[in-house]
Amino acid sequence: MRPGGHRSSSAVRAPAPVGGSAGEAAAQFFHVSKSYVAGTYALRDVSLEFGRGEFAFLTGPSGAGKTTLMRLTFAAERPSEGQIVVLGRNASRLSPRSVPALRRRIGVVFQDFKLLARRTVEENVGLALDVVGTPRRVARQRVFEVLKQVGLQHRRYQNPLSLSGGEQQRVAIARALINEPDILLADEPTGNLDPDLTIEIMDLIAATATRGTTVLVATHDQSILDRFRKRTIRLEGGRVVEDRAATGAGS
Ligand SMILES: Nc1ncnc2c1ncn2[C@@H]1O[C@H](COP(=O)(O)OP(=O)(O)OP(=O)(O)O)[C@@H](O)[C@H]1O
Ligand SMILES: [Mg+2]
What we know:
The protein is α/β, with parallel strands linked by helices. It has 8 helices and 10 strands. Magnesium ion binds next to helix 2.
């Protein structure tokens, strides 16, 4: 199910990925390039497809374009060339007004958790819900459920700074999952964690894919790739140099 060989613009209007209907794709990249600085490319001619509920790793050396690919998926950047279709929307041409609606369907986890120090765990996780005007009682119940999912319901009134690194990252994951996103993007989510916590956090992230969320994880960590054996896309110098199918049990 890789969209290799599509001609960009016509392919976007009538995508016909090999082996599946367009409705099943969470994100499709058609010959996407991104240049921040004239003459240099952060991504170059990338064509990829991510299915609904698929789990994929992005790997490759520093500067390869992993974060750029995620930011394009999240419509935080626009491609310089090519087309990106995310959840059926053409993210390359989205009007600024349409961006928030798309983003609500995408959860994001970063290496540095970016939790708000002056708010409780509960408030941090519920922030995205407040924005869409969910009634308070419903919001608190939803926050409780998602904190339970990451095993932190008992910490909900604490300040995030009083939690361990792994706990803080679990709060960040809960926050990303609060709106039951169709896509979860995790950029080096275990970069600051020790090996045991890394596995714990990766198990948690992998579990969200089994519930139907498309999960994309950027990582340098070869031990994670070896352990989880999911689809692995290797970028180098902005190009996809390898796209290896999952080999793990149950994949
Ligand atoms: N906002 C920006 N302005 C200019 N250049 C940028 C910008 N963001 C990224 N780049 C450049 O684009 C290239 C790809 O960067 P990107 O952050 O996507 O790589 P990465 O694979 O995520 O690297 P790392 O493993 O270090 O996080 C790099 O050469 C980087 O310097
Ligand atoms: Mg990066």
